[in-house]
Amino acid sequence: MFTRRRFLALFPAFAATTHSFATLPFKKKKIVPPPPVFVYFGTDTNKDVSKGIYQSTFNPTTGQLSVPVLVGPTARPSFLALSPARSGQKRFLYAVNALNDLAATVTTFSQDPASGAINQLGQVSSGGAGPAYVSVDASGHAAFVANYFGSTVASYRVQPDGTLSQPVTVIDFKDKEKFGSRGPNTVRQDIPHPHCATISPDDRFLLVCDLGSDTISVFAIDSETGHLTMNDPHLFDVRRGSGPRHVVFHPNGRWVYCINELDNTIDQLLWTKTSSVEKPQGLLVNTNFHIKAIADDFPTEKKHGG
Description:
Blueprint: H1 4-22, E1 37-41, E2 52-59, E3 64-65, E4 69-73, E5 77-82, E6 92-97, E7 105-111, E8 118-125, E9 131-136, E10 142-147, E11 152-157, E12 169-172, H2 176-179, E13 194-199, E14 205-210, E15 215-220, E16 234-237, E17 244-249, E18 255-260, E19 265-273, E20 282-292
Antiparallel strand pairs: 1-2, 2-3, 2-4, 5-6, 6-7, 7-8, 9-10, 10-11, 11-12, 13-14, 14-15, 15-16, 17-18, 18-19, 19-20
């Protein structure tokens, strides 16, 4: 029986044992600093100053960014995308070469995991003039390019060596019956201008902002082949004259934010999708909520949301 008297008798021994543990020479766990982060910059080589893609190293501990150095000479790499990070696998950097020419291209580079240096592996047609955006799905099997001046969106298979196939789907947005008429700004909205090709969080859908027609198109993706479904794509109308440029998904996967270049606003939209495998459909729903992206007194000639 454990009595109060027995507890008082045992307490000194317990206290001595506790003290001996407290005085043991425990070693402090060594804090391993986070690895450096490689940062890549696309540039406009048309101005005869820059030469292509530049790289810096970001130190997460100190917050310092090293001086950029040229690592990938290439023509006008205006937008870049990295393949998904996977343990033990190489990563690839994809760059659109934003030339206003039907011969415009998208270039593949391999990345050295130790130094961050890149090496050109291949180059294929962007599927239209003036490519402005490239994206790669989370599986690393498919890639997509929006061609601003060519009024097209192209899709690709990512091949085993990381390079892109020739375009497997090229969608022409000049079909007014399918993609709507031009916006009211006759200078900026003279033709369709696909400005981004954003992949949904589940990799099943592609959202394309068309600055020229004030719409966002939603296509189903076949991740194995890279094809986009052209049968009845969902078309979401943004406000006339807004000029939708880019969309981004909130981490909750339900909210979508669209920045509009011409009226300098940001719209909040709701995202929903069907679970059907045979006839998948993704839908955007208007919340009727938008805010201005700049102050009212900002100079008119400099108002370009992007």
